[in-house]
């Protein structure tokens, strides 16, 4: 938040998982629970502008579930 311009936006994607927090998946990548992302954003004083399920990437031709987030100053 401290480096985000007052009218700036922060967009990113993550691989998601249905549990809590963050776990290391069998692919050795981090998988985030959506509630975890929302909580971290709120703690940082950022407002959730968008949360959308997406395919974050393909792994051996199979879609990997993910989410797209757009955050803004609180």
- Total strands: the figure is 5
Rough shape?
Answer: elongated
Rg, Å, rounded: 13 Å
Q: Uncertain segments of ≥5 residues (pLDDT<50)?
A: none
Specify the biggest β-sheet. Answer: 5 strands, mixed
Number of helices: 1
Can you write the helix and strand succession as a string? EEEHEE
Which class do the helix and strand fractions yield? mainly beta
CA-to-CA gap between the ends? 9 Å
Question: What percent of residues are in strands?
Answer: over 45%
In the sheet with the most strands, the strands line up as: 2-3-1-5-4
Mean pLDDT: 94
Q: Which percent range fits the helix content? A: 10-25%
Structure explained in plain terms:
There is one protein chain. It contains one helix and five strands; from the N terminus they run βββαββ. It has a five-stranded mixed sheet, with helices on one face. The protein has one helix at 34-43, and strands spanning 9-16, 22-24, 30-32, 46-59, 62-73. It is mainly β and 74 residues long. β2 and β3 (30-32) form a beta hairpin. The chain starts with 8 loop residues before the first strand and ends with a strand.
What key phrases describe this protein's structure?
74 residues, 5-stranded mixed β-sheet, 1 helix
């Amino acid at each position: 938040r401290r480096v985000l311009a007052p009218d700036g936006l922060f967009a990113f994607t993550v691989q998601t998982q249905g549990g809590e927090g963050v776990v290391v998946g069998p692919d050795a990548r981090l998988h985030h629970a959506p509630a975890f992302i929302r909580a971290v954003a709120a703690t940082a004083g950022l407002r959730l502008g968008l949360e959308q399920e997406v395919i974050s990437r393909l792994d051996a031709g199979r879609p990997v579930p993910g989410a797209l987030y757009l955050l803004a100053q609180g």
